Amino acid sequence: MVEFINRTITGLVSVMVIVAVLGSLLRTPRRRDLTWLSLGLVAGVIGQIVLGGLTVLFELRPPFVIGHFVLSMLLVWNAVVLHHRAGHDGGPGLPMVPEGIRRLGTALVVLASLTVLTGTVVTGTGPHGGDEEVARLSFDITSVARIHSTMVWLFLVTAILTLVMLRRRGTAAIVDRDVKVLVITIIVQGAIGYTQYFTGVPTPLVLLHVAGSVVVWMAALTLRLDLTAHSVERIDQRIPVA
Description:
single chain, two-stranded antiparallel ribbon, 2 strands, 77% helix
């Protein structure tokens, strides 16, 4: 049943990728960046199919499952960037915020990546391997969970610092919205994580936590992308960057 659902979703994703490629090729004027990004989705889906087959072939061993998930997150990154760039004319943008805050935005993406990666190690070490007989990573679950939670706290503190700095200087409504969404999603995701840890990692919470990681990842990417203005309306909203 799970495999059927997975293949069904893969089929739907493949259809959407085909639509994205056709959209980039038929667009007038055609933009090379959008074409390459849409083709990146094609490469990613093909990679997922191959890696998915290897994951099954090697009996759901954690390194393959982790690689499968990480590739999924790279596909999400590709899709978010494609969606963002398709919304403007492709010309050079102007910074919405000072350089220091843009660096914080970049740091948030890095911290989001590290949070996701350490989270996959925790999952690979924990009891949910898709099969009771699947070998797990040989790390101490308490230790890797602490490393993961440390990354989450660093991520949250950096997001709150970014929010405070933006509030002090003033910023466009879209950036203010993005950073608030990121802070809220990190808090909710952290609450789910702690709850699942202290309640014996029940499967429903694990599934919710995995889904939440995608939402947090998208929120971090969206914030960083929105720190650069491309439309006339948003350029008018940007704050002084000197």
